[in-house]
Design goal:
The protein is α+β, with helices and mostly antiparallel strands and 301 residues long. The protein has 3 domains: 81 residues, Uridine Diphospho-n-acetylenolpyruvylglucosamine Reductase, domain 2, CATH 3.30.43; 111 residues, Uridine Diphospho-n-acetylenolpyruvylglucosamine Reductase, domain 3 (2-Layer Sandwich); 73 residues, Alpha-Beta Complex (Uridine Diphospho-n-acetylenolpyruvylglucosamine Reductase, domain 1), CATH 3.90.78.10. The chain contains 7 helices and 19 strands. α1 packs antiparallel against α2 and α3 packs antiparallel against α5. The relative contact order is 0.13. The structure holds flavin-adenine dinucleotide.
Length: 301
């Protein structure tokens, strides 16, 4: 199937798509040029059909959740971008929640709270999706998805198969999962939670959210913490100690509120952010002899 065949399949299946689609609005950095094609499945069934058609077309592809951990190049993405935030179905039963990849982590945590289930409070306020969260093993305040994700269902872009990884097969570690090593797209995930008191769960979620509001520059576009936690050091503290708060390249700025964040002051380009990342890495190496690693994923054109 070529590109025309792909568009025909999407039209026949009534799956929403957009050609030459600007990607900046689909990222929390608000940065990124156009995708040749962006596809918006609204259910797991549509996602499988869309991914299958993209696979058959042989086009280069990228999957996005909420775009909250990516820096997309200003040149855009020469290929098909499948954006999963439209697939948001979930089910709850016997202490488990199964959710489609596009459901937001904040909504997932709220669903757990509404069902008096504890274990997802930490995820409240992480602006990603179930798929992006499992892919990155998102975590905060001592919790991470690895602790509760019992299984995840995938579509394999290499073979076209649908399957499931359970338990240790997901190979979670700090900001890492098995999905970083292969070409499988997460369709849904199942989380095991424990019975809890609704009021206590809600209070913990409110507490985490107010800590975020207090410490993070949520009023400006960003992709959260740009760098990974260091081995034996707190990266944001090192950046602050290096006097880098407020340092700018173009409209990209090391946040004055949280040194781990780079914020978009208005018209930041991907080159501005990449330039600033290099400045920060170099200064931390020169001042403290430490190498720091990016958590945000750069998507080249
Ligand atoms: C203000 C702010 C605060 C943040 N706080 C935290 C925090 O406390 N803890 C934390 O861990 N992160 C945090 N983040 C980063 C981010 O929200 C998480 O990494 C989140 O899990 C990313 O999810 P997403 O849906 O936005 O993924 P995206 O950014 O859309 O994608 C990230 C990567 O996952 C891949 N991917 C996405 N969906 C799928 C899928 N279904 N199958 C396979 N691959 C997929 C993408 O291809 C990409 O490589 C923060 C970000 C912001 C902007």
């Amino acid at each position: 199937m070529n590109r025309i065949g792909l568009l025909e399949t999407l039209s026949q299946e009534n799956i929403e798509y957009c050609e030459n689609c600007p990607l900046a609005p689909y990222t929390t950095f608000r940065i990124g040029g156009p995708a040749g094609l962006a596809v918006f499945p609204k259910s797991s069934g549509e996602a499988v059909k869309a991914l299958g058609a993209v696979r058959s077309s042989g086009m280069r592809y990228l999957v996005l959740g909420n775009g909250s951990n990516v820096l997309i190049d200003d040149g855009g993405f020469d290929g098909a971008v499948v954006i999963l935030t439209g697939m948001r179905a979930f089910s709850v039963g016997n202490g488990f929640i199964t959710a489609d990849a596009g459901l937001s982590l904040t909504r997932l945590a709220s669903i757990a709270a509404a069902n008096s289930l504890t274990g997802l409070e930490f995820a409240y306020g992480i602006p990603g999706t179930v798929g992006g969260g499992v892919y990155m093993n998102a975590g905060a305040y001592g919790g991470e998805l690895a602790q509760i994700a019992v299984s995840s269902r995938w579509y394999d872009m290499e073979t076209g198969e649908i399957g499931e990884y359970s338990g240790a097969e997901q190979d979670f570690s700090y900001r890492h999962s098995v999905y970083m090593n292969d070409r499988k797209i997460i369709l849904s995930a199942t989380f095991r939670l424990a019975p809890g008191e609704r009021d206590k769960i809600g209070a913990a979620m409110d507490d985490y959210m107010s800590r975020r509001r207090e410490k993070q520059p949520l009023e400006l576009p960003s992709a959260g913490s740009v760098f990974k936690r260091g081995n034996g050091f707190i990266t944001a503290k090192l950046i602050e100690d290096a006097g880098l708060k407020g340092r700018r390249v173009g409209d990209a700025e090391v946040s004055e509120k949280h040194a781990g964040f780079i914020v978009n002051r208005g018209k930041a380009t991907s080159a501005d952010v990449l330039g600033l990342i290099e400045v920060v890495k170099r200064e931390i190496r020169d001042k403290f002899g430490k190498d720091i690693e990016c958590e945000v994923r750069y998507i080249g054109s």
